[in-house]
Specification:
about 550 residues, alpha/beta, 7-stranded mixed sheet, 25 strands, RNA-binding
Length: about 550
RNA sequence: UGGGGUAUAGCCAAGCGGUAAGGCACUGGGUUUUGAUCCCAUGAUCCCAGGUUCGAAUCCUGGUACCCCAGCCA
C-alpha cells in the first residue's frame, strides 16, 4: 500500500496497551497451529494479529507447533506452515513444539497426581461419556476417582512405560463432575497412543491433551497474552485451573476473538479436505481454495492478505466478511504496482483492409498513471485480434465498443471503423473487415473527433498463444452448508473456465513464474507457478477489474 | 434460569454518559486513450421494552435473537 498504515485499535490491543501501562514486561505472543493441514486465510487473521501486535510493542512472537496428537500430524504440514508464514512476511522469534515440553508436561502431571488433583481412570470411552452427564444434567464421579495417590503414581508410570494398550487407561484431572462447565468435569489430560511421533519418535506412548498442554506450553514459554478463537472461551476456566493449581511461574492471559468466515467459501479443515479428496478441486494449492498456498498460486500478494486482515477488524462478533473486501484488498495493492499489457482472451480476427502489409512498432506505457514504470514496443499490423465481447452486430444502448459502421480506438494505436462482418456457414462471426485512419496514430484524432470506446488488441502474427484460467467463487451460496445442507451441493459449476487459445502480446514471452500483470480492461493475472512454461504460458486470473459495463448489462436483462 | 458468548447501515467496524468515525458494497456526478484508477456527493438514533440522568448506543432492569460447549481432536 502507498498510504501509511494506521495501527488498528481493537479490543485486544487495548487490553495489551493497558497492561503494558500498568505492568512491566515484554510482550510475548505465539501462533500455535497443529501441523495437521494447510494454512488458510482464516489462519492469516490469527497470524497477523499475533505477529503484528508483538512487533508493534517490541515484543516477541513464537511459532509453536501444537503437536500432541501424532495420529493426525505430519512433517509435510510443518514445512508448508513455515513456508506460508515466511511468504506472508513473518519471522518468528523462535520455533517451538509442544512436544519439546513432553518431559516437563509429564512432570506437571505427576505433580498433579501427588497433590491428589489427578487420577488414573479405567472407564471405557463410552462409559466416560455417560458419566460426564450432559448439557443439562451433572455428571457423576468415576468409580476410579478415589484411588490412592500411590496407586495413581504407579499406574501412570506404567502407562508411560507402555504396559497398557491404547484406550485402556487415561489420566484425568480431579475437578468437579457437577460443574456447569462441562470442560471442568474431570477432563482427560493424558491418553495412551502407541504411535511414532514425528518429533519424538517412539519415546512416548502417552500423549497430553490440548487443554493440559496449551496453557502449560504458554507458561513455559512466558507467553503473556494467549490469543485464540471464540470456541475456546469455555476452556479458559480450565486453562486457568491448571496454571493456578500447578503454581506455574507465570500465568498467561487467554483472550478470545471471533474467527474469520468468508462469504461464498468454506474454511473448515474437514470441508477443505473433502474438496481435495473428492477431486472437486485440484489439490490444496488449487487457485480457488482459500488456503494460503492456493491464494499464492492464484496470485494474491502477501500485502493484500495482510491489508485484508487489517480491514476486517477484530472483535468477538460472529460475522461473515463479503468477498468484495478481499477483492478490494488485492486490487488496491496491485493497481499501483502492476504493469499493464494487452491480452485477448477470446480472440476475434480483424483485417484492416487499408493498412499496408508492413507491420509497425508502437510504444505503449506500462502504467497510465506512473511513467516511471516505463514502456515497451508493441507491434501493430494488418491482421489483429480483438475481444469477441468487444463487437456486437446489434449493439444495445450504451454499448461503446465496435459495431458495424462504428469507430473505436485501438489502445495506443489507431481509430478503426468496422466495414463488414464475415460469417461462416452456421452464421457465426469469424472475422471483421475494418479500415483505419492513419491520422489517428497513437490514438488521438487531429480533428478532435472523439470515440467513446477504446479496446485492446494484439497482432495476429506477433501474438503468443497462451492458456488463461478464469476463476470465479467456488460456491454459489453465501453460506455453503447452511441449515444442515451438504456444502458440496453449493459448489459453483463454473468456478473455473479454461481458455486455451488466448492471444497475449509478444512482450509476455519473458514473463516469469508467478509474475503478475494487468491485462488491460480484463483484470489482474499471474503466471501459474506449476503449469506454466516457456513453451506454454499459463495465466491465472487473480481478480477482474471493477466492471461497470457488466453492471449495466445485468440491469438491461 | 445448564454453562459461556454476541447484538451499531447491505457487509465489516469505531464509539467507553455530552448529542452516531472509517472501510467495503450500492447509487449519482466529475476527470480519463482501461466502461480501470482517481476525485466529489448520498445512507443508521444504535435488537426490543421499561428505568436512572439536564443528557444514554454507552449505566440499571426485564425481554428477544443468534453463536459455541456433552472427542481418549485442536
Amino acid at each position: 500500500m502507498q498510504i501509511s498504515k494506521s495501527i488498528p485499535n481493537d479490543f485486544i490491543r487495548q487490553i495489551i496497551t493497558e497492561d503494558l501501562k500498568t505492568k512491566i514486561f515484554q510482550l510475548v505472543t505465539r501462533f500455535p497451529p497443529e501441523p495437521n493441514g494447510y494454512l488458510h486465510i482464516g489462519h492469516a487473521k490469527s497470524i497477523c494479529l499475533n505477529f503484528d501486535v508483538a512487533a508493534e510493542n517490541s515484543g516477541r512472537c513464537y511459532l509453536r507447533f501444537d503437536d500432541t496428537n501424532p495420529s493426525k500430524e505430519d512433517l509435510e504440514y510443518v514445512e508448508s506452515i513455515k513456508a506460508d508464514l515466511n511468504w506472508l512476511g513473518y519471522t518468528w522469534t523462535e520455533l517451538r513444539h509442544s512436544s519439546d515440553y513432553f518431559e516437563q508436561l509429564y512432570d506437571y502431571a505427576v505433580a498433579l497426581i501427588k497433590t491428589d488433583k489427578a487420577y488414573v481412570c479405567g472407564l471405557t470411552g463410552e462409559e466416560i461419556r455417560q458419566y460426564r452427564g450432559n448439557l443439562k444434567e451433572p455428571g457423576k464421579n468415576s468409580p476410579y476417582r478415589e484411588r490412592t495417590i500411590e496407586e495413581n503414581l504407579d499406574l501412570f508410570t506404567r502407562m508411560k512405560a507402555g504396559e497398557f494398550a491404547d484406550g485402556e487407561l487415561v489420566l484425568r484431572a480431579k475437578i468437579d463432575m457437577a460443574a456447569a462447565n462441562i470442560n471442568l468435569r474431570d477432563p482427560i489430560i493424558y491418553r495412551i497412543k502407541h504411535l511414532t511421533h514425528q518429533m519424538t519418535g517412539d519415546k512416548w506412548c502417552v500423549y497430553p491433551m490440548y487443554d493440559f498442554t496449551h496453557c502449560l506450553s504458554d507458561a513455559i514459554e512466558g507467553i503473556t497474552h494467549s490469543l485464540c478463537t471464540l470456541e475456546f472461551e469455555d476452556h479458559r476456566p480450565l486453562y486457568d485451573w491448571f496454571l493456578e493449581t500447578l503454581q506455574t511461574p507465570c500465568h498467561p492471559q487467554q483472550i478470545e476473538f471471533a474467527r474469520l468466515s468468508l462469504n461464498y467459501a468454506v474454511m473448515s479443515k474437514r470441508k477443505l479436505q473433502e474438496l481435495v479428496e473428492d477431486n472437486l478441486v485440484n489439490g490444496w494449492d488449487d487457485p480457488r481454495m482459500p488456503t494460503l498456498i492456493g491464494m499464492r498460486r492464484r496470485g494474491y500478494t502477501p500485502e493484500s492478505i495482510r491489508d485484508f486482515c487489517d480491514k476486517i477488524g477484530l472483535t468477538k462478533n460472529n460475522t461473515s466478511i463479503e468477498m468484495g473486501v478481499l477483492e478490494n484488498s488485492i486490487r488496491s495493492d496491485l493497481d499501483p504496482k502492476t504493469a499493464r499489457v494487452m491480452a485477448v482472451l477470446k480472440p476475434l480476427r480483424v483485417v484492416i483492409e487499408n493498412y499496408p502489409a508492413e507491420a509497425e512498432q508502437l510504444e505503449a506505457p506500462y502504467h497510465p498513471n506512473d511513467p516511471s514504470m516505463g514502456s515497451r514496443p508493441v507491434t501493430f499490423s494488418k491482421v489483429i485480434y480483438i475481444e469477441q465481447d468487444d463487437f456486437l452486430e446489434d449493439p444495445p444502448k450504451k454499448f461503446f465498443r465496435l459495431a458495424p459502421g462504428r469507430e473505436v480506438r485501438l489502445r495506443y494505436a489507431y481509430f478503426i471503423t468496422c466495414q463488414s462482418v464475415v460469417k461462416d456457414e452456421t452464421g457465426e462471426i469469424i472475422e471483421l473487415r475494418c479500415t483505419y485512419d492513419p491520422a489517428t496514430k497513437g490514438g488521438s484524432a487531429p480533428d478532435g473527433r472523439k470515440v467513446k470506446g477504446t479496446i485492446h488488441w494484439v497482432s495476429e502474427a506477433h501474438a503468443i498463444t497462451a492458456e488463461i484460467r478464469l476463476y470465479d467463487r467456488l460456491f454459489n451460496k453465501p453460506n455453503p452448508g447452511a441449515s444442515g445442507t451438504d456444502f458440496k451441493t453449493a459448489i459453483n459449476p463454473n468456478s473455473i473456465t479454461i481458455l486455451s487459445n488466448s492471444k497475449v502480446e509478444a512482450s509476455l514471452a519473458t514473463a516469469e513464474s508467478s509474475q503478475r500483470f494487468q491485462f488491460e480492461r480484463q483484470g489482474y493475472f499471474c503466471v501459474d507457478n506449476v503449469d506454466s512454461s516457456a513453451e506454454k504460458l499459463v495465466f491465472n486470473r487473480i481478480v477482474t477489474l471493477r466492471d461497470s459495463w457488466a453492471k449495466i448489462e445485468k440491469d438491461n436483462r
